Amino acid sequence: MKDMMPNFNLVQPADLASAVSALSDAGEGGWAMAGGQDSLDWFKDRVKRPSTVVDLSGVAELSGITETADGGVEIGAMTTLTDVENNAVIQEKFGVLAMAAGRVASPQIRNVGTLGGNISQDARCWYYRAGLDCYRAGGNTCYADTPEGMNREHCLFGASRCVAVTPSDTAVAVATLEAEMVIVGPGGERTVAAADYFIGPDVDIERMTVLEPGDVLTKIRIPGKWAGAQFFFEKVADRNTWDFPLVNMAGAMKVTDGMIEDISLTCGGVECVPRKLSVVEDIVRGSAANEETANLAATSAARGASPLNYNHFKIPLMENLVKKAIRG
Amino acid sequence: MQKKFSSDRYDPQGTARDDVSRRHFIKGVVACGTVAGAAGLMTGCSGDGDGGSAPAGSAERLISINVNGMSRNVDVMPNETLSHTLRNKLGLTGTKLGCDRGSCGACTVMVDGTTVNSCSILTHTVRSANVVTVEGVGGANGELHPVQTAMIEELAPQCGYCTPGQVVSGVALLQRNPNPSREEVRQALAGNLCRCGAYNNYVSAIVKAAGSA
User: Which of A266, A281, A324, B56 could form a disulfide with A176 if both were Cys (CB 3.0 to 4.6 A apart)?
Assistant: First the structure.
């Protein structure tokens, strides 16, 4: 018999206001649980020990996909990845998000795992996951960035004591689509751009997003800006299923008469936040969507990278993915 | 009766094998544990979170869940996973527990027709749902589901540990897509690990079942 996770008080609110107040009552010991696909692993491993778990699955207003007046869509944070992947509007207008959602983990996990949870998920660095007292866990060292540290999956950019990367496939897609995140907390509602939603260790080493304890991500608003663009998504991982990306790339291009009018390109698995490749975007904007532009853009894709002992391979991986994205 | 536990002795030839199977013995112990209310002892957890009064909206422990078309009353801890409830409280040991981390798919069951890893959801989150386990996919009189028959014909199960999960994933696929392509079957089974490596046999079985179902 496998043992159980340590006990907690389970609160199952039916509406958002009760969820927020339950979280604020719980204070430090509170934990907002979306699909629970990552939460329960943390609890079973005894690494996170909340006293109160607030299960958001009963809050109906947090799921669903609706079209908005500006030609975009608004996706409830508790919408499952399977629903995002199979939604006709998202497939037609924002295919990159449907592709990314369909590449997450396994069918069973996508059936329960939510878009909000996938975007906001915690780092996969195994030193951190194993419960070691690293910087991210509130300690005073990094186990991955040492001469003998196993850091094949870790970052190329933005290291600041911690070298963990964003493990999310959908985060790069929503960053590419320049989504807005709607957050409700004890102080009311606020909206944060995707570019500001994800934070690196230099801003706060113990969190991956701007969500404060007690906050609930309620909606992901995709603006109409990139609707119907030419999309690219590719995830490179060791396994084709149930794996996190080594590097993933999401792109949206508007191409007219073979010329790239506008482009949005985001790379995951190389920094703590989804890395917007703005230098590449600037280089190719206004150029022809062809092999030559792709090769030129690739040379700048990983500029400034500081690889660790075992992750140099991510540099050519990034460059090749940029080539594929721009070649179309 | 004295021979009842003789299988505890070292007996490489199996000459002293009795008629009480290991499976029935374990099931009996599990049932006794449940009746005696020993869930706390089995799991090493106390009943309530911190002993204080539960806040509004807290989950009640005595609930009924719908499993394989039957409403079952059961005492469920707040931190209890569906696989734990199924295996240890309802005696539905067809659902296997492999990794207990949502990686292997051995514990796959259907919740309202979609597949989930029962080790990775809390039983309290499926109170109003219909749960179908491998015990519930066949006919009322124990007839096998076409997916199960096809798996036997295709020699898919080797050690058999992942088979219940493969069956449930296959049945769920055929329910929403009666004529899947081989690639669609592969995708549908992508969350079910088979350590024996019989993936092709499982895929072939489901393709075969789709033709006959």
Answer: A266
